Amino acid sequence: MANVEEVKNADVVTKENSFKDKKPFNKKGDRKDRPVRREESEFDKRVVSVRRVTKVVKGGRTLRFSALVVVGDGKGKVGLGIGKGREVSSAIEKATIIAKKNMKLISIVDGTIPHETIGKFAATNILMLPAKTGTGVIAGGAARSVLELAGIKDIVTKIHGSTNKINCVKATMNGLLSVRTKEEIAARRGKSVDEI
Description:
This protein has helices at residues 2-21, 88-101, 141-150, 165-177, 182-189, and strands spanning 44-57, 60-72, 77-85, 104-105, 117-121, 124-130, 137-138, 155-161. Helix 3 packs parallel to helix 4 (165-177). Helices cover 33% and strands 30% of the residues. It is an alpha+beta fold. The strands form two sheets. Strands 1-2-3-4 form a four-stranded antiparallel beta sheet. A four-stranded mixed beta sheet has the order 5-6-8-7. It is built from five helices and eight strands.
């Protein structure tokens, strides 16, 4: 009988010790105690614009925020995203996720574009010209963020028409995607670079 009692007492002691280490149960699932997960991204992020947008509904107006974010790795990959949310932080987060999904590869030769091009979107036209080393990025605010995050070091640009930030960013992306290197053109035509 003594052996059975000793075993029971030992069980009670171990249970008490195990409960001492644990924190009391929190109804919210101890969210405050959890460490915040922040992913170290290999991409640079730039918030181009945050706007307050309203939607008129039966009961009045609902206020939300719209964020335009450009994401790039500085090595020829760049993407843009537009996200909406009730708070600025959630809108930026959504836009960043969308931008990472929409990453595109851009042709860059010696820190500039291979040839001149015109990017078009809606009422915006952006003329992009290759530049010599040391020129820098000569571009307006919205276009500059796309060019810098793409990894372009020297370029001259001029925007004609609408200077709306969303249109400018999309026109810049369209212009950069239309650029082709000599090698790409030669491969499409089935010729060597010297023949072109």
